[in-house]
Amino acid sequence: MSSNARFIPVQRSLYPVLLALFVAVFVISNITATKAVAIGPIITDGAFFLFPLAYVIGDVLAECFGFRATRRAIWTGFGVTILAVVSFYIAIALPAAEFYEHQPQFATILGLVPQIVLASLAGYLVGQLLNSWVLVKLKEKTGEKSLWARLLGSTLVGEFGDTLVFCLIAAPAIGITTVGDTVNYTLFGFAWKTLVEVAVMPITYAAIRWVKQREGYFAEPAA
């Protein structure tokens, strides 16, 4: 029996998967970043172990798909995060059932501090846009050579912009009030995120090569 049903074909690309992971890491980081963490003399937040992954994925997107596609992913993450924050506030404001005993905890965990949200969104936009723009501009000069230089250069610029903007806005909201602790918080965040991305650069290399192979990149003529 023939069918008249028509559907839009799904493109066989890794871009949607990478975009989903990119957005998920950012949304989760916004929640875990609300906790101030002290590891010995080091002051940081609860997202310090996860957020560098967003830059690894961002590097893969920028290197493989270009600035326009990466910018689309960045703005998608921005929009989804705003949707998540609005949803959290609505859920908190809704009247709790009589048998529900965890309203205070629910509100504490998901009631993201507006200052944290602002810091995260501002840092995210500045850092990710700088990271992808620098990487693409370097690629225009180096071609397929010196991937390590593109990754390192874009990381230094993007992570510094992100960390500086986020920490200056967010520090007072998580209880960091002195200049010394703010500098500690900013420098550690920048150093940690940069060192992590440098440490996982072999994984980033492998991921970029795998994505390029899957997408038929090497079969295409050079522009």
From TrEMBL:
InterPro entries the record matches: YhhQ (IPR003744)
Domain of life according to the entry: Bacteria
Cellular component, GO annotation: plasma membrane
Primary location: membrane
MF terms (GO), sorted A to Z: transmembrane transporter activity
Listed transmembrane segments: 46-66, 73-94, 106-126, 147-175, 187-208
Keywords on record: Cell membrane, Membrane, Transmembrane, Transmembrane helix, Transport
Bilayer topology term: Multi-pass membrane protein
Cell compartments where the protein resides: Cell membrane
NCBIfam families assigned to the protein according to its UniProt record, in alphabetical order: queuosine precursor transporter
Role summary: Involved in the import of queuosine (Q) precursors, required for Q precursor salvage.
Family the UniProt entry places it in: Belongs to the vitamin uptake transporter (VUT/ECF) (TC 2.A.88) family. Q precursor transporter subfamily.
Protein name: Probable queuosine precursor transporter
Phylogenetic placement of the source organism: Bacteria, Bacillati, Actinomycetota, Actinomycetes, Mycobacteriales
